UniProtKB/TrEMBL annotation:
Record flagged with keyword DNA-binding: yes
Origin: domain of life: Bacteria
The entry's keywords: DNA-binding
Matching Gene3D superfamilies: 3.40.50.10130, E3-binding domain
Protein name: ERCC4 domain-containing protein
Lineage of origin: Bacteria, Bacillati, Actinomycetota, Actinomycetes, Pseudonocardiales
ERCC4 domain sequence ranges: 129-209
Organism expressing this protein natively: Actinomycetospora aurantiaca
Length: 323
């Protein structure tokens, strides 16, 4: 019967105290931080088979029912009553390939047993128009809400709402790995500085704050200090940890809906009070339209435009003059 072997790492300088030997593809060996992914996913560092000791100090032998590769994952089923299933997943984060060993329990912790509401956000009448930055990959769809999505280039943030042709609120989305990377290379500092120029803005993180302290490649204290520094330097741009992607999407919808309602009320009040500061005074520039949007407008306006390719500068000038 095949076995999954866990031995002590003989290298005293390694931060990963165990070696994991998986009986597939001739025997794969990983350095790892634990003997089984019981409460959290374990980071695994792949090494050559020659790193497995000739006389290993075996900590645990796990007899297996099966061990098979399915795409970028290795499914492991142990021959025992409890803690039977686990998966070794090859993924990409922080610009490089990484391997994690996870179990159904660790995946459940990342998916809390809650159902997000489908009730429309307070203050919204009909569909809420959300502008999605054209560079945003795998964007939120807001499928359970009454939302109309428009894809355009935003001056800052990944999702925003527009009033009077001006960007009045935006949300920057981050996974935990994106957050750590952008903190260490200072790109998040510049992004938050730009968000702070808007009337309302926020950063939403698709993870729990506690996972900041599970970081492997960057000292957790450094990440926590930089998050705190941004919160102090830019108090108008909160950094919100929402635990999962689904909850981050829900929070983004509610935030933008509230910001849109607030901006409309402020604009009305500002118009009624002489000398009052308008909410648009601090708004960002209008999002740039896509070529397809300008082409559709031009045809509706009776202008001749090609079916594909670039548009003449005069068409863009006419669009901007009309809007």
């Amino acid at each position: 019967m095949a076995e999954l072997l866990i031995a002590r790492n003989p290298d005293p300088d390694s931060t990963l105290p165990f070696l994991l030997r998986v009986p597939t593809a001739g025997g794969l060996v990983f350095r790892t931080s634990g003997t089984w992914p019981r409460t959290k996913a374990l980071f695994c560092y792949p090494v050559g088979g020659e790193e497995w000791p000739t006389e290993p100090d075996i900590v645990e032998r796990v007899p297996l029912v099966s061990c098979s590769r399915n795409g970028a994952a290795i499914d492991v089923i142990a021959d025992r009553r409890t803690e039977r299933r686990s998966q070794i997943v090859h993924t990409r984060a922080r610009g490089r390939e990484m391997v994690f060993w996870q179990s159904p329990n660790t995946r459940k912790q990342a998916r809390p047993q809650v159902r997000t509401p489908t009730a429309r956000a307070a203050g919204t009448d009909g569909e809420l128009e959300i502008v999605v930055d054209s560079h945003e990959r795998y964007a939120y769809r807001f499928a359970t809400q009454q939302v109309r999505l428009t894809k355009q280039a935003l001056s800052c943030g990944d999702y925003g709402v527009v009033l009077g042709g001006r960007l009045v609120a935006a949300v920057e989305r981050k996974s935990l790995s994106d957050l750590v990377t952008s903190l260490t290379n200072s790109t998040l500092r510049h992004a938050v500085a730009e968000l702070a120029t808007l009337p309302r803005a926020a950063v939403v993180v698709e993870e729990r704050y506690s996972q900041v302290f599970a970081s492997t490649y960057v000292r957790p204290a450094i990440v926590a200090d930089q998050i705190a520094e941004l919160a102090v330097r830019y108090p108008s741009v909160p950094i919100v940890f929402t635990e999962t992607r689904g909850l981050a999407e829900e929070w983004t919808y509610r935030f933008l809906a509230a910001a849109s309602s607030w901006a409309r009320d402020e604009a009305v009040i500002g118009a009624r009070i002489p000398g009052a500061e308008s909410v648009l005074d601090g708004a960002g520039p209008a999002p740039e339209p896509t070529t397809a949007q300008v082409r559709a407008w031009a045809r509706g306006a009776g202008l001749e435009v090609p079916d594909r390719g670039r548009l003449r500068p005069g068409v863009w000038e006419a669009y901007r003059a009309a809007h």
